[in-house]
Design goal:
Largest sheet: 5 strands, antiparallel
Strand content: 15-25%
Radius of gyration: 21 Å
Distance between the termini: 78 Å
Strand order of the largest sheet: 1-2-3-5-4
Helix content: 25-40%
Structural class: alpha+beta
Shape: elongated
Number of strands: 5
Number of helices: 4
Order of helices and strands: EHHEEHHEE
């Protein structure tokens, strides 16, 4: 006896694509980058794409600049060391963090000089943050250093939050 069997095929019509972007609060991007100069470009592209996907294009110029500056300076001061970039949008603010593996110097004057050198390399970032009335800084985390500007998101129109 001959039987026919039906198999389910792909649907002829695909469901309608989701047209609204995901909410900004869901933005979460993490990258590990080698500490090389070209990685600033990778960071710029990744941040720009993530912000566009979450309809945060209005803060993209500042965020892309911040990512580029942070990664470029960290790569310059820590050549060939991995860097970690984190981008999050929470409570109406965009938080961008770059961690590097540069350990704290044991001698206080040497540590102070190292911090001053790092800050002087980020003058452009400091100017953008200051222009928007925000704050940024370098914080020590065990065995790493954390750089963190905070940028206002869609809920806080075009301003930096401190």
């Amino acid at each position: 006896m001959l039987t026919t069997r039906t198999t389910a095929a792909c649907p002829a019509a695909h469901p309608a694509p989701i047209v609204c972007p995901p909410p900004p609060e869901g933005l979460s991007l993490s990258l590990t980058l080698p500490g090389e100069p070209h990685c600033a470009g990778i960071a710029r592209s990744a941040v720009r794409s993530a912000l566009h996907a979450h309809a945060l294009d209005t803060i993209a110029p500042e965020a892309v600049l911040a990512a580029s500056e942070l990664v470029a300076v960290a790569a310059y001061l820590n050549p060939s060391q991995n860097l970690y970039l984190s981008l999050r949008h929470r409570e109406g603010a965009l938080r961008l963090i770059v961690y590097d593996a540069h350990a704290r110097h044991a001698h206080p004057r040497l540590a102070e000089a190292c911090d001053a050198r790092r800050r002087s390399g980020l003058r452009l970032l400091a100017a953008v943050v200051r222009d928007r009335g925000g704050d940024w800084g370098v914080r020590r985390v065990p065995r790493t250093r954390r750089w963190h500007p905070e940028l206002g998101g869609a809920a806080v129109p075009r301003e930096l939050r401190g």
